[in-house]
Batch of 3 targets.
Target 1
Amino acid sequence: MEQLKLVAVSAGLSSPSSTRLLADRLAEAAQERLAEQDRKVEVEVIELRDLATAIANNLVTGFPSPTLGAAIDAVTKADGVIAVSPIFTASYSGLFKSFFDLVDPQALTGKPVLVAATGGTARHSLALDHALRPLFAYLRALVVPTAVYAASEDWGSSGDEYTEGLPARIRRAGGELAELMASRPARDESTDEPGEYERQLADLRFD
């Protein structure tokens, strides 16, 4: 059985950052669920803060640096993507959006994507549904049902009788991503052309 590739994109600006920590925890949860199904997965984490200058140069010149090109290629060829952004002014960061603006609009068609975000207060959690989810829905990705938002007070919290704690939400979202990755039709590695399933989804785009 082929090895799957999972790519986590973290748009955290500090080092270390809670955004990177959340990306790592989600990747671990997906990896654990896949291991339960005897599926091997290679995990790669892309730190956008290290590519910020290259992203800006690509936007104005139209040409990616080798490192940025490799990051874009990794996302394009992944079997599943975890996309995590800090929330600024009730939306994803400019760095996060700029990176995905450079990814081919067809590249995420039919690809499982888990969206997640971090912020200082729970009030920004709605950004998952009014900003991140619509972005990837527009790109025709298969957005995982459970999105994960982590406010500062969520770390170390086990939740209460009304709300799941962060660890439980991470496990659920990671498990959903793993299920979508495991059930996704194998891609022909001999060509970069999308399969019939991806082409059919792409035909549904309305620009």
Note: The mean pLDDT is 88.
Target 2
Amino acid sequence: MQVTETVNEGLKRELQITVPAGDLDTRLNNRLTDLKDTVRIRGFRPGKVPVAHLKRVYGRSVMAEVVEQTVNETSQQAITDREERPAYQPDIALTEDKDEIEKILKGEADLAYKMSFEILPALAAPDFGKIEVEKEVATVDEAVIDESISRIAEQNKPYAPREEGAKSESGDRLTIDYVGKIDGEPFEGGADQDAQIQLGSGSFIPGFEEQLTGLTAGTETVVKVTFPEQYQAAHLAGKEAEFDVTVKEIAAPGEVTIDDEFAKSLGLESLEKLKEAVREQIAKDYEQQSRTKVKRQLLDALDEACTYELPEKLVDNEFEAIWQQVTQDLERSGRSFEDEKTTEEEARAEYRKIAERRVRLGLLLADIGEKNEIKVTDEELNRALVDRVRQFPGQEQVVWEYYQKNPQATAELRAPIFEEKVVDYILALAKVTEKPVSREELFHDPDDEHDHDHDHDHSHGHDHDHDHGKKSSGAKPD
């Protein structure tokens, strides 16, 4: 095998690799020798088929296998000999000349191919002890707990059907059937049966609930509304619509007394136990928000400290993944870049920077984890898999088998766990100062109009409400 370096520019490498025809012939003969004990050819006893005869019968097809195996082995050997770390699987380019290919398969020409790749940059992690981050912490006060319990009580109000002939009022829960029409034609997602709507909740598009006030059970009516100009489905935005509505039941809300009996109805021993559970959950929410903001600061600091060159192909691949999701989101919502107060060119530049940041931080965190022997345990991975499976009730077995059979999918579960462990490692060495703040300050994000993409999951999707009778905010790519 002869290896000639043809490109060495920054992180880019290109090698010309040549394997003599004689070496290929030797590999071919060895392969045919292995085959002679297994093939069955009429006129020959098992194991007695001459290699020369096998070469005449199977030589071309076996040589194709030999060439593939040789490329795999020699390309790996070339990288090992050079002691380089490719940033991705190298691109292999064999000749496309049919005559040349035929000569190689016949053993009449050397095997020559090009291998191109980019190497990982030399990474130098900053001094973690000099990184300073501020951790905002908020206290869970009694007023917040009482407020949360009041919301729980509101959500668990009992409803009882109103007496026959009674008219609907604000706060009542109506059970309705409806069919939405534009210009007399039903539109997709504009119909439902046995839908429940609480008058005054604002859960449906403006004007819808108001026109259902003062009606009796059994009433059939037509609700006329105009979809908001910024409605997520562009083909409905600003359109006038009519909904044929049948009021099937009117139920009035009952009173809820927040006491031990209420707590027991929720499966807890007492009101005090309910308060403890609510306090614990709120504390977890506060801690998660605090962690999120600390992690953002940390990754900002790491990103600012890293100035190394990035493998261009990794950035390209990351950008394409982001861009595909962004354009799909826009298409699904029927919006354009102009609706988002930008242009495609500006959006591309913005998301290119995000892709660069992801690659830069991804490489650094991976390097830190490797050098410090940070591992994701089987227990941690199984826990993540169980959590994932639970997101698909009724399909648990199918989802479980999918992850068991797809290493790439399992790797996607492992990645965020690994990242969090590396972040924990760095935070343990950094200077973390706690800062007492209010709940409002803790959850305030001055950059909430922008996408930082500090985590390396590739999810930009939005959960949109496809029932067009219901109110839904416009789509905006993250």
Note: The chain has three domains: 2-118, 158-253, 269-443.
Target 3
Amino acid sequence: MDTWESFKMAGKTLAANRLRSTLTMLGIIIGNASVILMVGVGQGAQKYASQQFQSLGTDVIFVITGTDNARRNVIAPPNRLVLADADAIAEQVPTVRSVAPQINGSELAIAGNNTKRATLIGTTDSYAIVRNAEVGSGRFLSNDDIKRNARVVTLGAAIAKELFPQGNPIGQLIRIRGTSYEVIGLMSEKGAFLGTNQDDTIFMPITTMTNQLTGRTSPYGVAIQVINVSATSNDNVDAAQFQIANLLRLRHRSTDMNAEDTFTIRTQQDALEIVGNITGALTILLAAIAGISLLVGGIGIMNIMLVSVTERTQEIGLRKAIGASPSDILTQFTIEAVILSLLGGAIGTGIGISGVLLLSVVTPLQAGISIGAIALAVGVSGGIGLFFGIFPARQAARLDPIVALRSI
């Protein structure tokens, strides 16, 4: 019997037992759909995180006060960077384009009868340039505001809606710790980033925040938590990072050059690599968990095929009696198992792709359709069908035709 004839006979047999064939394929369908969908989710998460970081600016460098080990000390947290450090970086590092020092806080903001706790950032006019922040209306903080210690603020989109739900906030007053501040601008919506709503932020001149709220918390000057720096170009990020580190080491180590750094420098690329590694590992984990369904589906195919061999003992005996060889029987049963796997893989692929497209529509994740994941899932499902179909097929091929015919 030729291979084409074996395919035709296998197809007729599977068509005659539609319910059993469908249930047999179910594990493969679920497995393929799960693998494709989970890989799509993982890749979508990678793209989303990358876009969120890039929206902050690809040439941004963050100089953070303290080291990772020192920041774990909750009893005496480090407070080493000062405003003079930011000024020194701006003046002495040639590969730096803009510098924006930053003081963080959390305060209750009051506007009329509306009260909202918001993140408070004291910074300079360079912040909008370094962090790629866009003003929706009004204006951001200016250099004159910094020099005059002006009592002005620029609101994030979310906090503006909370405090002024009925109208335009520009020109209105808000109160923080009993002091009134004029709203001079409204930032464009930027959304959440790493669990923090960037629109739920109030920006204030760093001098005003120091004089009105935080005070002088370091004997060496105005203490700050972060220095936001933008390099002159993406190609100069590494050079700027090296030059900033050397400058701060000179400023912070007057005598002991072997002392530990009192700061940490991070770049956008560092953050992207960390997020990429995390989401990549999660993608592999999700795909591996989903791949278990393929294994279960393969075992289901073997079980059903073994049952099929028992049910078709008479058919096998008759075919052998009229001249079918063991290889013909082996080929037919193997083809049936492979057809079930490949057909289930194709249906599962269609469901998985549909799920990925639906996910892209209803969520912010730009889930991608991975050709590699599709090829791997379909190839694995076909291989599973072949692997788990061999044993039942050999069982059928080894049946003694005399014993099989006795059951007629």
Note: Residues 70-79 have pLDDT under 50 and may be disordered.
